[in-house]
């Protein structure tokens, strides 16, 4: 698989001594959607800024499209698009002019047909003559995306693209991002919405305190780190876990009224749902009656929280 962006040993220490990035290594494949997850202050925006020329790294290298970005910054930057987290644009500018102007900033000639295509794709054509300040928050974010697409970048960064956007608009923007991928655009997005990454991303990277904790395919990550949780409501409370259940990862909660199973996942482990079935059989054989079972499979959010907790330990 072709690599479009290669980051090696990237660090950033600010004048006050705060280190935002600590030796980050990251490879992005051409044509993928990559989700970079992390809490506030984890280093996501600093990393994006370093690639886009907004932040000067302290050390390390950034290679884009097979070339050193530090040596060929102006030419390579023209192949990169950025949708910033902040709504940084002239609010009195009209939508169509703003998008056309962004195209000119990268030295491209006017192309009204391409601008119209972008605005129509983002459901902005009807707002083309409106001042940006008159638009809703969701529409303003669409304008930022349109401006970033004006010069047809091959690599697109989306920094919290759906922050403050309602669920309907968020899902509409997901569809637009998928269409961009179909056009061959490589997309790196940061998000606080874990379901967003779970819905769209091919691979997921988790960053905390300036360090990459993990990078893996979304499916592989969930299979390797995912867990099954089953809450079994017992007909009669137990004082302790019976010896016959000692082989299972279970504990008692709710004053002995609920048997809690947490297991499955992990390389080489038996599937969690299969083990829950074996657990219920063991309960039946032992004459331990139960009235309900609630089974929950780990989401990407569960894995994310677990990794951050482990990283903080």
From TrEMBL:
Keywords: ATP-binding, Nucleotide-binding, Transport. Residues 5-234 form the ABC transporter domain. GO terms for molecular function: ATP binding. This is ABC transporter ATP-binding protein. It comes from Novosphingobium beihaiensis. The lineage of its organism: Bacteria, Pseudomonadati, Pseudomonadota, Alphaproteobacteria, Sphingomonadales.
């Amino acid at each position: 698989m072709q690599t479009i962006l290669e980051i090696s040993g990237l660090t950033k220490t600010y004048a006050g001594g705060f280190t935002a990035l600590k030796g980050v290594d990251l490879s992005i494949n051409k044509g993928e959607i990559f989700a970079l997850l992390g809490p506030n202050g984890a280093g996501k925006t600093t990393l994006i800024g370093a690639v886009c020329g907004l932040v000067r790294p302290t050390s390390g290298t950034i290679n884009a499209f097979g070339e050193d970005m530090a040596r060929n910054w102006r030419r390579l930057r023209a192949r990169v698009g950025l949708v910033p987290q902040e709504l940084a644009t002239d609010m009195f500018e009209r939508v169509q002019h703003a998008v056309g102007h962004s195209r000119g900033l990268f030295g491209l000639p006017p192309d009204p047909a391409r601008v119209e295509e972008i605005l129509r794709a983002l459901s902005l054509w009807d707002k083309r003559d409106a001042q940006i300040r008159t638009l809703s928050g969701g529409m303003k974010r669409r304008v930022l995306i349109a401006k970033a697409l004006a010069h047809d970048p091959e690599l697109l960064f989306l920094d919290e693209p759906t922050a403050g956007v309602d669920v309907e608009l968020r899902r509409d923007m997901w569809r637009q991002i998928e269409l961009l991928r179909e056009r061959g655009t490589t997309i790196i997005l940061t998000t606080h919405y874990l379901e967003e990454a779970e819905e769209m991303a091919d691979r997921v990277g988790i960053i905390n305190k300036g360090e990459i904790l993990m990078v893996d395919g979304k499916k592989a990550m969930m299979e390797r780190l995912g867990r099954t949780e089953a809450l079994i409501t017992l007909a009669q409370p137990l004082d302790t876990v019976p010896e016959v259940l000692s082989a299972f990862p279970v504990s008692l909660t709710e004053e002995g009224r609920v048997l809690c199973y947490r297991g499955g996942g992990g390389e080489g482990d038996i599937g969690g749902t299969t083990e829950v079935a074996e657990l219920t059989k063991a309960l039946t054989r032992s004459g331990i009656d139960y009235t309900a079972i609630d089974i929950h499979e780990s989401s990407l959010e569960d894995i994310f929280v677990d990794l951050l907790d482990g990283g903080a330990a």
